[in-house]
Amino acid sequence: MSHFGGFARSPRLVARLVADRGLHAPEAPGPDFARGRLIAPGLRQLAVGVRGRAVLGPVDPAEHGGWEDCTHRAVRGLSALPAPRHMTLRAGGHARVETYVADDVFGSSRLLILDQLLASTLRIERPDHGVLVVAPNRHLLAVHVLEQIEEVAPALALLGELAVVEHRIADPVSPWVYYRAPDGRLSLLTVSPTRNDLDEAFGTALQRMAGPSA
């Protein structure tokens, strides 16, 4: 009960993206992570309770109707938050990198509603070739919509720089660049400067953008 004699209002559920420290493991050891779902190497989706402006921490989906119902309500709660600020950066002269900055701690979590975000800001809901994306800290999400093959390298370079630099500030999430396929699946593109293998789905997107070989 509240201090005023009535029942305290139940916290609302909001979906949140957090760092998963077990980068190459399907499950991380901490109890907070055990309540969520690994959506990509290094990234885990949780449902947290929010009361007013206070984030209360992860909830147990079993206490909120199970994972599917809990997730649906939490994503709906994320969608209801004020829209982040949108700004476009240029890379290599023509490549566009869309940045979304939030005053709340759910900035990078907008990756979980990316289709909605792109539809509201770019009028593109599900890009044909997918997107490159970084979620370096809780306040920032940056995206490059894949359209032209010649824009990939400069956009990837700028996203990589943003990921590393912005990850060093407070509230870090992930220093890596990810590829999000048109079907919504996420795959890791960068782990270190020496990595040179190519994600299969991303490679397919590049081939489609390049067009048929002569």
- Per DSSP, the total helix count is 5
Helix content: 10-25%
Integer-rounded radius of gyration: 18 Å
**Low-confidence runs of at least 5 consecutive residues:** 1-8, 24-29, 192-196
Task: Label the structural class.
Answer: alpha+beta
User: Average pLDDT value?
Assistant: 84
Major β-sheet strand ordering = 5-6-8-7-9-10
The biggest sheet amounts to: 6 strands, antiparallel
How would you spell out the order of helices and strands? EHEEEHEEHEEHEEH
How would you characterize this protein structure?
The chain is 25% helix and 28% strand. The protein is built from 5 helices and 10 strands; from the N terminus they run βαβββαββαββαββα. The protein has a 6-stranded antiparallel beta sheet with strand order 5-6-8-7-9-10. The protein is globular.
